[in-house]
Amino acid sequence: MERMQMSSAIWPCWLSAWARPTKRWHLQPECHRRIFCCWISCCRNEQGGCGRSMNLTETSKVYIMCPAYAYSGGPTLLHQLGARLLADGVDAAMYYWPLTAEKKVHPGYKKYNLPYTDAIDDCPDNVLIIPETLCGFVPQSLKIQRVLWWLSVDNWWKLTNEFLQYYEEQAKAFDTEPLPNVWALNDAGLTHWVQSEYAQRFLRLNGVPAEKILPVGDYLDEAFLLRNETVTKENRQDVVAFNPRKGLDFTRKLMEYAPDISWRPVQDMTPEQVEEFLHTAKVYVDFGNHPGKDRIPREAVMAGCCLITGRRGAAANEVDIPIDEDLKFEDTEENIPRIVAKIRELLSNYEQEADRYAAYRQKIMQEPAVFCQQVRAAMGVGASREETELILSHECGGGTEVFLQDYLQQESAAKQIVMRPSNAPRSLAEWQTFVHRHHITQITVNHLFGFSLFETMASIRKLGIPYTFYVHDYLCICPNWSLDCQAAYCQNYRSQPYCQGMLKALSVPNLDLDLFRRNFREFLAGAAEVIAPSAYAAQVVNQFYPEVKITSRPHKLQRNIEQTFQPQFAHTPELTLTFLGNLCAQKGARYLFQLNSWLKRRGLPVKLVVMGEDIQDIDGDREGILFTGKYDCENVSGLLVQQQTAAVLIPSAFPETYCYTASEAILSGYPVITMNWGAQALRVQRADCGWVVSRDTPDRGQLALQRLVRHLLTPAGRQDILQKAANTKNFRNGME
């Protein structure tokens, strides 16, 4: 996080005033209206004008006022705005309040790499953006262009109410009746941004002209949206979720009326736990105030919950919460039976009712793009430069390359450049020249193998450009990227023959593993996002770097795969087991060669097929195994059916982070045989679409594999194949 230092010391009286502790005001009742009007108009600038958008010049600076060291929806949006402006080439900086705060930048926002300043240049070319809850602390006479951003209405009212004690009515929605004599909202020196339709109606109701109001909304975390692009209806429980911090009094009445319903509060959970919980609930209710477009109701809808709300605040209109009218209720005693009846209806008919929210989900998915458009329109700027994403990736093929090619096929708002180790910059100066020449606005690290590792990571961190890191293997833990030792020797790797032999083979015999991991720890901690293709891989990495937040986002195959398994394949006299992928030691070649020798000694009617190339990195009994050679991933389903495959062998000798071949086999309808580690083992277990062989034996599971194959040749085993093949339908493309 870079801190900006401005040359001019501006607003000394403001700075000194902010340094003093504030007192609660005690005024006579007749003074409240006057104080209120002054407070609301504190940003009045008699010299300034207001247009539909800001007037920016080449030297303009934009300052975003934000509560210091606060982590909630409002500060998140303010930081997202800063990142958006910088991406569009606007000179923007955060201005944290109060200035005396010892801690300013919350760790949750360091990923944005936003500059901040303690001084404002009060110039007509510059812009100050003020959240509504801080508008009372801005000086009255300023030359700078000012924006009052209404992230909420009700939260602003809570602060205002301290000055308006005479106004004792408890309004349910501030967009239905005007406040008394709030003429100061129509301030000639202010532009108003609104996060919600609710805020817009509130301002219009209180005399702010429409031409002075601009919509600038918000959006849910884009990683969250990607994870929840498709609704998962399976494994739902008859649970009604609610936020106990909102509308709890009325929710308690619902709970007392229907004690047989399972009511679960969303509390004492991390964001990840909230998301996981919402994936299991069927209904989410919110009868609290809605000061704007609230985050959790939208997250609940995206996670697949059916939403029921009250009609307070933003929930009252059809724009901010666009759900059917029969899903919104006044929170009154007489409505309790109707509300509970609707909840029971949603629980009973969840499969159909969940589809009613499809349009709302689509709107939420579009919010990041809409936010970008609204910010550009409000600031009066276009995309000043073409956004370009730089993608770093090795040249070794495999699943990492499959992911890269699928990634490049997806729609992207940015131009994309793929950088390989052979053409990478060799110094920080070369990196800076490259990113400037190509207008790089984001960096994606697909894989760093082959790059000058430490130098590349250090340069990327110093560029100040947001970067995303993908965990495709375990290189971020050890140069032995497969981690096939299960990190058994990490505490004393210097004295372990295994480690010394491995490091020598990798041409790094004198590697300081502690230094290696310190570099990666800092690099991962500085990433905007770290993404693993499975919870299994994320858990392994977190064992070494527990402080790094890792998002689990399973790969989704960008091609159509048909279910081609046929029941007769389980009943052929000679059973066909197909190894899918290139055969090498790490993919389980030893298991296959030993199984082949055992089958021939026993004379068992099993045909072994390798649908891929023989890498020949180890010796073994290859006689009798059919090698079909390199295959086209687009035709994997057809090739499996050609071989009359009964089951697919994936006996990996290391804990894979994802395993594309397992997904290809399962989506094609074929049961999978794998060992009990890696992401593919969890996939097979969860869908019950194959067999997981324990390798926790002296022979690493070889005897257990032989017993399983012998079982599959029996009538019961062949029926087992059919059942496991049928269970492959439990797995869908993009699932964990």
Automatic annotation (TrEMBL):
Pfam families the record matches: Glyco_trans_1_4
Keywords carried by this UniProt record: Transferase
Source species, domain of life: Bacteria
GO MF annotation terms: transferase activity
SUPFAM superfamilies attached to this UniProt entry: UDP-Glycosyltransferase/glycogen phosphorylase (SSF53756)
Protein name as it appears in the record: Glycosyltransferase family 4 protein
Species assigned in the record: Selenomonas montiformis
Lineage, opening ranks: Bacteria, Bacillati, Bacillota, Negativicutes, Selenomonadales
